[in-house]
Amino acid sequence: MKVWTNTEKGSDKVIAVDDQKLHKGNPKSENFNATLASVNKGNIPPGFLSIPFSYIKQIQWQEGKPYIQVFFGQDSEEYFRVKHDLKRREIFEYLKTTLPNSAYKLEKYTAWRSAKKAIIATIVISILFAIVLDTAVRLEQGTYYGAQLVIVLFFAGLGVRNVVLLFGAFITIGLIAIYRKVTNKPVIHLISRRWR
User: What is the pTM of this model?
Assistant: First the structure.
């Protein structure tokens, strides 16, 4: 039995690995020492979550995130929360060598993969902005005739100045999101089970 304890708020208090299962529990403070003694002897108390190795499909750890994500069963997942960076890495490294029939993979996202959703959203908002702005200008000039989507007419009715301010804010938020995602590209460590 390999056991880790965490005292940081937001972390799972006890994480343990034996030769067949991954366990976690959050005993009350007054029961912590007794619970830890029991776990160290190999006795997992009631109330602990235990995931058999045979159920685990994948274990994922994204650098910078305060948890290790475990995918198991049909579509289940569980977060093993560990705020302490070195301890989280140690737990993952231990699982990497312990989980039977598994393979390790490191994924480093490209700038495009990291920011793709934010880029697409910003492009869509920019196109909508161009359509709304054109409609707003023509409405103010009294030269607008024809059918248009209700949402376009709604925003265009706010006036050119308000349209520019509103969509300018949306586009700025999108550009900031793109910048953050490009400068903080995810690095993901994966342990995947090899099914025989």
Answer: 0.73
